[in-house]
Amino acid sequence: MCGIWALFGSDECLSVQCTSAMKIAHRGPDAFRFENINGFTNCCFGFHRLAIVDQLYGMQPIRIKKFPYLWLVYNGEIYNHHTLKERFEFTDYQTKVDGEILLHLYERFGIQKMASLLDGVFAFVLLDTANRKVFLGRDTYGVRPMFKLLTDDGFLAVCSEAKGLTHITHSMSSPPKITPFLPGHFEVFDLKPTGKVESIQMDRFHCCTQEPNHAAYDTVERLPSGFVPETVKSNIRSLFENAVRKRLMAHRRIGCLLSGGLDSSLVAATLVKLSKEEKLKYPIQTFAIGAEDSPDILAARKVASYIGSEHHEVNFTPEEGLKAVEEVIFHLETYDITTIRASVGMYLVSKYIREKTDSVVIFSGEGSDELTQGYIYFHKAPTPKAAAEDSVRLLKELYLFDVLRADRTTAAHGLELRVPFLDHRFTAYYLSLPEEMRQPKDGVEKHLLRDSFKGLNLIPDEILWRRKEAFSDGMMSVKKSWYNSLQDQMESEVNDFQLEKSPKTFPFLPPRTKEAYFYRQVFEKHYPGQAEWLSHYWMPRWINATDPSARTLSIYKPDKDQ
């Protein structure tokens, strides 16, 4: 996890502009560098480093003797950098940094093939001064964030988080748009002698339904084909284990978030198993958050005891959660309701990890619900085809919702997130399976995923078949859910008159509830006029939902009611 920032063609003095780069300092607490570009006095890079791989040469921008005209800043991890280095016989390697592979791949194959061969998570800015080109790119699911600002006269500013661009000085009369860079895409700019740029190409290099190009060089060989259930389940296990194994690449201590649900339990159990095989010199720490008697805390305790992790429980009250909401919205840069609700617990557990432990690389279960049709509303899908299409839609929108939440809440505390369920090969394989196979079955969502790990004793059986909790319910006391605590608080924060006038106050995506109104107020305080960063609220499909919480759905039964 790092913070990247770059300007091309600034009309303002760079020493004034660089104060904006400090707004993302939390992403890289280990070191900071601000560097001008030879021959382009109005262009520069800013970089905040969290040292995970190659403690000595990991500072950026990365430049190597072999290609002195290339400059690279990137945030991410390239899990197959060793494999690609050997496969293409790249010599003259100068560092042990995983990102150096981008320079060698670009020089040999060009930008599109380079991006498509990267197995990992990344957002990059690559400058080629010899050919006067600037390239931007972002991984398939947008696990690593990147925003851009481009003015009509060709001034380009790029940053890991939008907050690093909101106070950039420019010469335009009206403020230019700040937009999230699209996942799975790369963009090419011509760099003019003035330092200004012109966009000449924007293309997709990978879509989640396609097998990635780098699969040809993967450590897992070609999988047995066909849709015989036992073959499919074996392939799911192989690819999932491979996804966790490749993410062990780190010089810092690895931990895992553990809610006691299916996804985080599978990740934690596989992580503990592989850490023993790889002979890591420390036990894996797992972290659960919630009220002392919450369903998640109790389930996570059971899993941790079963897998033998060093377990930490972080207790928090509704009052502590409510107090953190404004900070959380500032870091998230969104006013989406369910994203904020679910982020509070993750933000507080990340704060605990940073302050009380030495774990820095944090595994988590994000992406599974979207991929394996884990949301409760999938029980109401009219056809298997509709369910499969909605699964792909959710994956493509992850960068606006769950992946955004997971990145910002951990990065706020200088942690690095790893999400094995969003492994390119794993997701492409799962999405290639017949639509009927991926649907909920016998009243149980994610049936295929659960069935794939049945009888292995990897996690306790009652956890393997535990129904999905609304995250807000799982964290909170059986006496009162986080959802209900929020609703009570919002009654005193927002009055009926304000809510009635919300379409006038907030014409773009007007809030329909007092909770949504309160979040929007806080968002506008920090990011006035930037409501279009969110294109729509996350909502369940097929059931006329007015609230994103699973607990408002008639088909939802929390653990304690079953």
TrEMBL record:
ATP binds at L257, I289, S364, G365. Its EC number is 6.3.5.4. Keywords: Amino-acid biosynthesis, Asparagine biosynthesis, ATP-binding, Glutamine amidotransferase, Ligase, Nucleotide-binding. One of its GO terms (cellular component) is cytosol. Coiled coil: none annotated. This is Asparagine synthetase [glutamine-hydrolyzing]. The active site is at C2 (for gatase activity). The keyword Nucleotide-binding applies. It comes from Salmo trutta. The record marks E366 as: Important for beta-aspartyl-AMP intermediate formation. GO terms for biological process: L-asparagine biosynthetic process. InterPro entries: Asn_synth_AEB (IPR006426), Asn_synthase (IPR001962), Asn_Synthetase (IPR050795), AsnB_N (IPR033738), GATase_2_dom (IPR017932), Ntn_hydrolases_N (IPR029055), Rossmann-like_a/b/a_fold (IPR014729).
